[in-house]
Amino acid sequence: MKKIIIFSLVLIYSGLLWQCQSEREKLPNKPLVSFKGKIVFQSDLDGDNEIYLLTKKGLKKLTNNTWSDEYPKWSPDGRKIVFTANPKGNYDIFVINRDGSNLKQLTSYKDNEITPVWLPDGNKVAFTEVTEVKGRSLREEYTIKILDLETMNIERAIPPFSGSSLLPNFSPSDPLMGFTARRTVGWDVAIYHFQKKEVKFLTEGGKACRSHFSRDGKKVAYVSSQADAKGDIWLMNPDGSEKTRLTRRNETYDYFPSWSADNKFIVFSSSPRNHKLRGDWALYLVKVDSKRVTLLLDTPGRDLFPDWH
């Protein structure tokens, strides 16, 4: 009799566990508003960070494993997605096809390689190398590197720059790379000109980061906390002029902008609180000309780092 009761309890528990897992894996059917194109992003919807694909038809999970898959970026032709993952503990760069197939590891080093992004020609990938520096206190240094996918050679992206540099982004029309850099206090948005081999800071004050060129290269979206001490999406020209605040949501942290193909919208992640990316992050759209903000997708997980193609 006791064995029957124990067996019944096991069946009930297994059924409840399966139901909970099924509910956790259940994806939202469609975005809250229609949009053109496709957006990849990371979310811990299933318990750890995975890569998801969002279209107007709905949501699709592209990776499914026990480690963390983060920071996805489309290739220029939309056929591949590069991202960073830590299956062996440290972060390396990986690439998959747009449907999640054909996983391939691109880097394997002792340091962490994060925030990968394609160069406009589609033949190279830039990323941030994170190196731990031991001294009076353990700290990290950030250096942008470029990986040639044909030769697999890696070189520094900004030879004349000795400060910390991370989060690369490339102009589709000019030989420019936007990046986030640290001079003394805080972070600012800077530009590196590949032909002139010059670095120019576009912001000052240590309160700006995460630049992203528009699809025609005429504007740069970025994040600044100068207005509300949290974070908003701003716009400026590639020379740093005509800075304009795009989102005016003093109660939220608005981060990680990415342009639509027609430059009319920007998708970004937003949260009412921001502590090391904890909290309820969701995806929003802002219409550039009207500055109108609309909720796009809000899953039970933290929806971060969207990239639009």
| End-to-end separation | 61 Å
How many helices?
1
Residues in helices, as a percent range: under 10%
What coarse outline follows from CA principal-axis ratios? globular
> Overall mean pLDDT score?
89
Main pleated sheet: 4 strands, antiparallel
* Alpha-beta content class: mainly beta
Order of helices and strands: HEEEEEEEEEEEEEEEEEEEEEEEE
Which strand-content bin applies to the residues? 35-45%
Give the gist of this structure:
The chain is mostly beta strands. It contains one helix and 24 strands. Mean pLDDT is 89; it is low at 1-24.
Describe the structure.
There is one protein chain. The chain has one helix spanning 2-25; strands at 39-43, 50-55, 58-61, 69-74, 80-85, 92-97, 104-105, 112-118, 124-133, 139-148, 154-156, 164-170, 176-182, 188-193, 198-201, 208-213, 220-224, 232-236, 244-245, 253-259, 265-271, 282-287, 293-297, 303-308. The chain is built from 1 helix and 24 strands. β16 and β17 (220-224) form a beta hairpin. The radius of gyration is 21 Å and the shape is globular. With 309 residues, it is mainly beta. A 4-stranded antiparallel sheet has the order 3-2-1-24, with no helix packed on it. A 4-stranded antiparallel sheet has the order 4-5-6-7, with no helix packed on it. Strands 8-9-10-11 form a 4-stranded antiparallel sheet, with no helix packed on it.
